[in-house]
Design goal:
Strand order of the largest sheet: 9-8-7-2-15-16
Number of strands: 16
Number of helices: 1
Radius of gyration: 15 Å
Largest sheet: 6 strands, antiparallel
Order of helices and strands: EEEEEEEEEEEEEEEHE
Shape: globular
């Protein structure tokens, strides 16, 4: 990945079974981890230089077959409010993220692989649909997130200059 500082992630997610563990976006070791488990969406962003991470979660009433847009943003500071989580165009889980260890800034080495819909390091594959996964080298604004959500219809996001975009279609 080779990500550091201000970064954003966007993806569309739709579970296809009532299993309790869905890795959505994963980079091992210690990079980014976005997963849906037991009705809760979890986000972990790691500082590979200092060994800490920021985490935030949100209870998501997710039904089988429902699509949701998930956007995670982080600015380049160690401020605990730097991690923001958006569901379907709206910021949720407001307030501070939880900091573990010595977290200074989000950074992932370029040697880390990126798994979409899986955690291949643990041979965990989710029964879900994922679409329109994008990574941005900046913190997206609330209006950018609204544009991505586009009232529930995936939108062309090329004007937001993603550093990686997997259309899955």
């Amino acid at each position: 990945l080779g990500l550091s500082g201000s970064t954003s992630f966007s993806m569309w997610f739709n579970p296809q079974a009532s299993a309790s563990y869905y890795p959505i976006l994963h980079s091992d070791p210690s990079g980014i981890y976005i997963l849906f488990n037991g009705g809760t969406l979890y986000v972990y962003l790691y500082d590979n230089t200092n060994g800490g991470y920021l985490t935030k979660n949100y209870t998501l009433n997710q039904s089988i077959g429902d699509w949701h847009n998930i956007v995670v943003t982080v600015d380049a500071t160690s401020n605990l409010s730097a991690l923001k989580l958006y569901i379907d165009g709206s910021e949720v889980s407001t307030g501070n993220a939880v900091k573990s260890g010595t977290y200074t800034s989000f950074n992932v080495p370029s040697s880390n692989p990126l798994d979409i819909g899986a955690r291949t390091s643990g041979s965990i594959f989710a029964n879900q649909l994922i679409d329109e996964v994008a990574i941005f080298g900046s913190e997206l604004s609330a209006s950018d997130v609204t544009a991505i959500y586009n009232s529930g219809v995936p939108n062309d996001i090329s004007s937001l200059n993603p550093v990686g975009w997997w259309r899955m279609g």
